[in-house]
Amino acid sequence: MSYITLALAKGRTAKSTITLLENTGIQFKDFHEDSRKLVFYDSDKTIKVVFVKAVDVPTYVEKGAADIGIVGKDNILESQADVYEMLDLKLGKCKFVVAGKIGSTLEKKQKLTIASKYPTIAKKFFQKINQPIETVKLNGSVELAPLIGLADYIVDIVETGNTINENGLTILEEIEDISTRLIVNKASFATKSDNIRQFINRLKSVLE
Ligand code: PRP
Ligand code: MG
After folding, report:
1. Which CATH number do you get for residue 127?
2. ipTM rounded to 2 decimals
3. Where in the numbering of this chain does the ATP phosphoribosyltransferase catalytic domain appear (predicted)?
């Protein structure tokens, strides 16, 4: 029996993604929110799910280690992976922003220092507005950087706004809206076309 391998992002959107899949009639009896298991199958053994770090999902799909991935647009953009983006699952809605200390404005200077988990996105945005930058790649708690003088501004994700608000920052520029997307490996889309199309159509029907 052939199955498709689906790379899912661990973390915030995992539960809602599994729920969405279950709404299409696919059953994941082995999935428990607090389980440490990284691989499991649906009850019909047509889908093998591998749970990976969100940032790695585009890599799994680009390299063909997974046929399909479900992950935030933020990680797809940052990875620049060569994959097909086929569907917006409209989960995990948030946006990319430039943020700085309350009271500040986005001032241009010879070179700005930008802290981010997303240096590629930061570079692209500032290139567009002709502002040279130096990026400081951080892996979390990015909001600290302007407060302790590590960077002039940050490029990060805002969902509820709580994190920037509670740390004395404010949005200076909105870059792009983000949500969870379904991506497909290019070779798999040719070799497993029927299975993949069927899977996408099932998802589409519950999204409508
Ligand atoms: C993310 C993001 C923001 C925050 C946005 O961080 O980097 O800091 O969530 O959400 P909010 O607007 O609802 O507060 P995350 O919680 O993933 O932690 P990390 O950046 O330290 O990894
Ligand atoms: Mg954060």
Report:
1. 3.40.190.10
2. 0.97
3. 53-204
